[in-house]
């Protein structure tokens, strides 16, 4: 899975000047708190994308965000299951699964059922389902290694795979999550941070249209915190989408050569 | 599929593509009579093979093997267990082969591929028959603690010759395996020493240095398709679906026959064909 | 060369064979086959309308369902199902009834070694009983390679566990053929010399394997004769069976 030479991992950290409030509101014991991988609180992990990871699929993508590694394959549009009723718009079918070695302890992947439906909801709004009536598009994701923030990596990777498969979408879907740890907002949390978090926020959006397809908030949040978190995430999303777009452009330009 | 265009090149191309889909067998037989395959390989040539060790950071040993576009990811996770009464000084190796829905259009969630349990069984049979792993090496404290090695192989892209790629990745992962450092704690139980706080003097590691498995012999396999008088090495998924007789030969590094696996298919003449299918394999060794 | 076997057989001696046909009333064809204490029951239903999964407009489909003596079906049984299915597909004339499915249910009654060959023999007899058109019969045998390098035929379970390697072989059985002489040769060897299925376990040298083949083939002739003896129509007027 080595990247092409010359494609340095690109980061997409938000450039918002929220840093000024940060040190002041820390509790004393929070001040010297460092993230496990040494990033700044508002710094994302380097993102690497590549399309065309699986030849037998109609479209596929591989994403690597730090230790989180994900492959998504897209099949179809193909015949719907016989039992399905006739529908004049296309169907989207999503499934997320984990390898047994993805998590530190063997065979303890998170709840994939929930992830599958979250993935479905996040993508549904972006795909132009009217373009493939009576058929189904299958989006299957496999988390090879779980390093935290798995779902948002899966969603972003899936939208890239859909683009690779040539499924019509209104825009690429980018997703970023954020953890609330005490008074701090930590973007793109790793597994360790996720296990200590007080609350989490995930935004999935179509940056060019400035539309949100999914927003999920869990845990305890105050309204100003939510606002701050959403701004951070939206900013990161638009940068992530730029990385994804450049990955797609690169893939087409190399195939044309 | 576009309509035949005005330009002659394009229309003939479309016809070839249509011919391939409508009469796959005849399409292949035309190629075979010219001793070439649609992907440009001669009949006996295997596809390019690459292996990358250590592909999974969270595992104790891992490897990614690619044969053509067939991709396998194998990873080993070690756990400490109490050995069974019958074999107190032996560890255990559990092998499982998975075909997640991402790997092929045939597999769908909730309907696992028929091939997966078969390849899984074939792999464990082959690895145990070859005797490449001495289970005694997986012992830590006789009768008290031993390693339980979980070897999981995931097919990321299925394009024929699944068993060959799976075996290759499994063997590579075993060769890459490094035992975690463990020590005995106060209760006499074995605990894994994390590398950061390693080197505490009162806890003497049970396995002094990081040890690797000694692999006695290394099995290699080659799958061939038999069709009429032709033998095609290392088939793609398309070839496997059109021509049904498959033979998998597994030899180890000392040229012992580990397995000759031919599940049915139209009749095969034995001696000559088997000997022929050995030869490209020996070539790759 | 002589080796003592627990049950006093010589290396080349098979266990007593028994085969009875038409033992189930509802199935379209059925047979039980036993080799010593290993006994397998096979039932055939079909050809019937193909299920959607196995639909193929050009060929008939064969499905095999393996029922173990006790417990759940696991990986080994899945593998057996696949091997039996592929083996039967190779002997059936699949183009006669396209788009149909023939189910073969294999029920293990008792396992005392050579289980897979026994099941293939039973399934083959059941297909004949059901009147499914076959190209030829198939005879399966297990050869066991003892530590001394001797080949033991038709091993019991105990022998299978003790020996270092064994091979399950399936040979075609076609003494009567309407094909012209020349077509019975594949690459200069008569088809009689061919194998349909080979599954091996344990390490052995190539020469040992070829030796197994030779002995297995010699023994399969005897089994073929037995199979043919037990197969001629028992009562031609049995039209009352399930339709």
TrEMBL record, chain A:
Domain of life according to the entry: Eukaryota
Pfam families: RNase_PH, RNase_PH_C
SUPFAM superfamilies per the UniProt record, alphabetical: Ribonuclease PH domain 2-like, Ribosomal protein S5 domain 2-like
A GO molecular-function annotation: RNA binding
GO cellular-component term (any): cytoplasmic exosome (RNase complex)
Region Disordered, residue ranges: 1-21
InterPro entries reported for this sequence: ExoRNase_PH_dom1, ExoRNase_PH_dom2, ExoRNase_PH_dom2_sf, PNPase/RNase_PH_dom_sf, Ribosomal_Su5_D2-typ_SF, RNase_PH
Compositionally skewed regions (Polar residues) per UniProt: 7-18
Gene3D superfamilies: GHMP Kinase, N-terminal domain
Predominant cellular place of this UniProt entry's protein: cytoplasm
Transmembrane segments: none
GO process annotations (BP): nuclear mRNA surveillance; poly(A)-dependent snoRNA 3'-end processing; rRNA catabolic process; rRNA processing; U4 snRNA 3'-end processing
Keywords of the record: Cytoplasm, Exosome, Nucleus, RNA-binding, rRNA processing
Localisation per UniProt entry: Cytoplasm; Nucleus
Residue ranges annotated for the Exoribonuclease phosphorolytic domain, each copy included: 43-167, 171-232
Family: Belongs to the RNase PH family.
Name this protein carries in UniProt: Uncharacterized protein
Organism: Carpinus fangiana
UniProtKB/TrEMBL annotation, chain B:
InterPro entries hit by this protein: ExoRNase_PH_dom1 (IPR001247), ExoRNase_PH_dom2 (IPR015847), ExoRNase_PH_dom2_sf (IPR036345), Exosome_comp_Rrp42_subfam (IPR050590), PNPase/RNase_PH_dom_sf (IPR027408), Ribosomal_Su5_D2-typ_SF (IPR020568), Rrp43 (IPR033196)
Highest taxon above the source species: Eukaryota
GO (cellular component) term, any one: nucleolus
Location(s), subcellular: Cytoplasm; Nucleus, Nucleolus
Keywords in alphabetical order: Cytoplasm, Exosome, Nucleus, RNA-binding, rRNA processing
One GO MF term: mRNA 3'-UTR AU-rich region binding
Main location: cytoplasm
Keyword Cytoplasm: yes
GO BP terms: exonucleolytic trimming to generate mature 3'-end of 5.8S rRNA from tricistronic rRNA transcript (SSU-rRNA, 5.8S rRNA, LSU-rRNA); nuclear mRNA surveillance; nuclear polyadenylation-dependent rRNA catabolic process; rRNA catabolic process; TRAMP-dependent tRNA surveillance pathway; U1 snRNA 3'-end processing; U4 snRNA 3'-end processing; U5 snRNA 3'-end processing
Segments forming domain Exoribonuclease phosphorolytic: 46-180, 218-266
Any Pfam family matching the protein: RNase_PH_C
Family, similarity comment: Belongs to the RNase PH family.
The protein's name: Ribosomal RNA-processing protein 43
Organism: Carpinus fangiana
From TrEMBL, chain C:
Domain of life of the organism encoding this protein: Eukaryota
Similarity comment: family membership: Belongs to the RNase PH family.
Keyword Transmembrane helix applies: no
Provenance organism: Carpinus fangiana
Localization, UniProt: Nucleus, Nucleolus
Keywords associated with the record: Exonuclease, Exosome, Hydrolase, Nuclease, Nucleus, RNA-binding, rRNA processing
GO cellular component: cytoplasmic exosome (RNase complex); nuclear exosome (RNase complex); nucleolus
GO BP terms, alphabetized: nuclear mRNA surveillance; poly(A)-dependent snoRNA 3'-end processing; rRNA catabolic process; rRNA processing; U4 snRNA 3'-end processing
Signal sequence region: none
GO MF annotation, one: RNA binding
Exoribonuclease phosphorolytic domain span: 13-133
Record-linked Pfam families: RNase_PH
Protein name stated in the entry: Exosome complex exonuclease RRP46 homolog
